[in-house]
Amino acid sequence: MAKLRNSYSDVLLEISEKRGTLEKDKEQVMVVRDTLESDEVQSFLANPHIPVPVKEELFQNAFSHELAGHVKGFLSYMVGKKREKLIIPALTEYIDSANRRSGRIEAKVVSARALTKEQIESIRRILARQTSLEIMIENKVDPDVIGGFYILMDGHIFDCTVRTELNRMKERLKRGMQ
């Protein structure tokens, strides 16, 4: 599945690069991805009983004049090939690849409370030093995180949560008692 997702993303990326519209297309793709991510839209797209033209009409209504022809074509192709479930992953991969080519990478920091600007900047500096890339951070709040935070970046998870530390301590104590 990942290989297929990457091949769709790569084709769209190649078209953007040939046209010299990588940054503009990336912005459009981000809007599309963010719009299509909702559970309701995903259920609609994944429903096999809804005809392809009706799904394509959703794209026309939602994005009418905003999208480049090749981005609209990508969406129509995916729906026509019954690859609706791959649209979001392929668009996310496209965004990540476009960012990497521009020397940037997205990181999502999930914490129990919103982080301060200073905390976000500290995390950004550390990640930038590790990757030699410009880091764009999105802070999400998840009350299920007891304390600490975890980072989702480039397919990796860096877990610095209290829950994980407690589980590690529990495992060390179990090993020590055996």
Structure description:
- This protein is an alpha+beta fold and 178 residues long.
- It is 62% helix and 16% strand.
- A four-stranded mixed β-sheet has the order 2-1-3-4, sandwiched between helices.
- The radius of gyration is 20 Å and the shape is globular.
Beta-strand share of residues = 15-25%
Low-confidence stretches: none
Q: What is the fold named in CATH at topology level of the largest domain?
A: Peroxidase, domain 1
* Helical content (DSSP H or I, runs of 4+): 55-70%
Annotated CATH architecture of the largest domain: Orthogonal Bundle
Radius of gyration from CA coordinates: 20 Å
The major pleated sheet works out as: 4 strands, mixed
CATH superfamily of the largest domain: N-terminal domain of the delta subunit of the F1F0-ATP synthase
Structural class: alpha+beta
Tally the structural domains.
2
Task: Tag the structure with descriptive keywords.
178 residues, alpha+beta, Peroxidase, domain 1, Glutaredoxin, 4-stranded mixed beta sheet, 8 helices, 4 strands, globular
